[in-house]
Structures are given as C-alpha cells and as structure tokens.
C-alpha cells in the first residue's frame, strides 16, 4: 500500500504536465521499487521449514526462535517440522497437478484456497483500486487525483493497523465475514447515494468518505486474510501446486474485473458510474455466506494439526473447537488423505 500511495501522489503531481513527462515520470519511478524490495529482503529471516529442508538445522532453530514469542516450545516444534519434512519427501514422489482434485479431502482444500483468494475480486475492490481517479471524475468529485491520495492513505493506514491485529486477534472467518458485509453495504450505499443525487457536490463528498471506509474494510479485513487462508489451507504435499493455482485464479479474477469495469462506468458505454456498486453488494453477500458455511478457522493451528482436521472431514464451523490429540497428530503427520483412509478402514 505504501507503493500505491507513492504512485498515486506521483500521478497527482505530474497530471498537469503538458508534455510526455506526465506519464514517463510515473513509469520510470516503477523501477525504484524492485531495488527497495531487494534490499529489504536481506533483513527478513529465512523460512525455518526451508532451512530444515536444506539440512541447516541450527539456522532453522535460530529462525524459529526469532519468529516465535518467548516461552514457546521451539525444540518440540522443530522436531515436529523435521518429522513432517521427512514424511513429505516420501510422499512427494510422483505428486502432480491433478492430485489437487483426485481425492475429496485435497479437492476440498484446493477449492477453499481458490475461493479464499477470489474473495478479493468478489468484493469489487479492483474496480475502486484501479479506477479510483476516474471513478471520482465520473462522480464529479473536485480534484479526483487529490481524492485518490486520500483513498490510498486510508487503505495504507488500515494495512498498518492490521499488522497488529493479525497477531493478537487474527480470526480469519470473523474478519473476512465482517469485511465482506461492510464492503458490500458501502458499495450499495455509494450506488444509492449517486443514483438519488447525481452530480451534486455533497454527493461527491459522501462518495469519497464511503470509498475511504470501503478501503479500510478491504485492506484491513479482506485482502490480507484471503492470502493468509490460501497459504494455510493446502495440504503440505500439494502446497506449491494449490497455492500457485489459487494465486493464478485470483489474478485472473482481478484482471477480469479491471478489464470489464470501464464498460460499466464509461459514459460512452453503460454509463453506470458509481451505480456499479449495485453489482458488488450481492457479490459481497454471497461471498460472506460462503465464508460462514465453508471456510474453516485455523488460527493458532500448526500445519500438521490442519492436516489432521481435514482428514477427519470436520465441518467448517467445528475446526475452531476441535481438539487434536498429540498421539493422532504425531501418527498422521504428513500422511496423504488416501493413506489415512486406509488406516481408518483397517481400524473399522
């Protein structure tokens, strides 16, 4: 979001230039961002799982100690990770893309990951993020580029606040559900206000205020948790395939909305303008219903515990209160859904 705000400010300051520099300067500034990211990466600790996977156990222990709060049982978690990795190496042989859909448990986890990322597109966010200045211009807001800066600042503030909430609270289902409901009603109110009083100064002010509140809900409750869920839910042996597939679906959804939005809001096309929010209200409500009925709560769970709960075929609302036996968790760590099914059949 910091990059978005900086880009918006640059667009605002160069918009009045009469020559090619009006667009060349913003494009040239893009090359600065990769350099900043490259330098920042040196200060981020490596993944403990990756280090252990490479046989660097001491480095993995140091990274895990840095990431976990004081008092955490680091040695026990390290042993659990090593056991899971050893089992994964055995199971990973012969695993392919289609394995995401062959088994009911893996198919469920793939579907949840994909749908979680698609929540961003379903909230209508790309419509406001990509076309905020044009959207404000259609609503006859004074100085739409300046108001875009206000919108980006609101979104960045929500992102910073969320960095503290995710650690202390972090309830995925509650935050996603609440964010989608709030975003949906803001989209509806924006559409209704513009529909009733188009072209008025007070309408423009209301639209800017509601758009800022919408971005707070989206950046603080929807965007971060949709990616978080998509990374937590996949099975360990299919994680790279599942998360990659979910990310591709998410980017496809974002592109589709960005591509089609001008046809709805342009005066030369459908000329809906801010009335485009009428579409996103039901979309947000349907998404919120999906979160309530199908998205499991995995806050505070290890990846191994998540494996056990999915293999138990629990309903989404039972994940939060389910108690994973240490014996069962240790026994089933890293096993595929098929293997666990065989074990269950043998017990019966």
TrEMBL record:
SUPFAM superfamilies: MFS general substrate transporter
Database matches in InterPro entries: MFS_dom (IPR020846), MFS_sugar_transport-like (IPR005828), MFS_Sugar_Transporters (IPR050360), MFS_trans_sf (IPR036259)
Membrane topology: Multi-pass membrane protein
Entry keyword annotation includes DNA-binding: no
Subcellular location: Membrane
GO molecular function annotations of the record: carbohydrate:proton symporter activity
Transmembrane segments: 23-44, 110-134, 146-167, 174-194, 206-229, 241-265, 277-295
Predominant cellular place of this UniProt entry's protein: membrane
Domain of life assignment: Eukaryota
Domain Major facilitator superfamily (MFS) profile per the UniProt entry, residue ranges: 1-299
GO cellular component, one term: membrane
Family: Belongs to the major facilitator superfamily. Sugar transporter (TC 2.A.1.1) family.
Protein name (record): Major facilitator superfamily (MFS) profile domain-containing protein
Native source organism of the sequence: Fusarium irregulare
